[in-house]
Amino acid sequence: MVEQILKVDKLKVELGGERIIENLSFNVKKGDVWVILGPNGAGKTILLRTLVGVLPYKGKIEWKKNIKIGYVPQRLPMIKDIPINVMEFFELKKVNEKKIIESLESVGIGKEILNKKIGDLSSGQFQRILVAWALIDNPEVLLFDEPFAGIDISGTESIYDLLEKLQKNRNLTILLVSHDLNIVHKFAKNVLCVNKEMLCCGVPKKVLTPGTLNKLYGGNIKFYSHSHD
Fold this sequence. Notes:
about 230 residues, Rossmann fold
């Protein structure tokens, strides 16, 4: 029997008197890959931040005891203006150089990047750096907020390949916010559709119907498939 590592029951989140999430319930098993879909302002980022314990809520969030969680935020545009290099960025984690290099290599980056300024990295390189940062503590769960935002199609495919490899090699549980329906169908075992409240939950092929997508986004949603080996 696959171990359940997260139970969310009747979750409600209000910020500044505004209802952000209402009556959200779902369960996550070890090794699952979940993609969270929804329009802008639907509460997806708030959900991830609530799951890692930085926002107040009502209802129930039960993680497996002593579980390690890695979190990759949507984007950190301000940090690219900070005059530090990659090595100095990772030293904020208070880990040695050997561990930093191992974490970088796990995401396909060599140690030659250590002296490169954060602001000089490409969007794809910076995203990999953030993944390596999240992996350095050997988490069991990774939460990603729009990991493909601001990256071109080839870069998106590369990051997707990386996440798929990491998930298989480490049996990671992944919760990922994305607008890319291609990624959902190729990568996710389950999808959670939210717009303040839950609109669908389950296997993508079963629950992502035209009707559901219309409720989620409004209007007609076009689905363009691109190849992936």
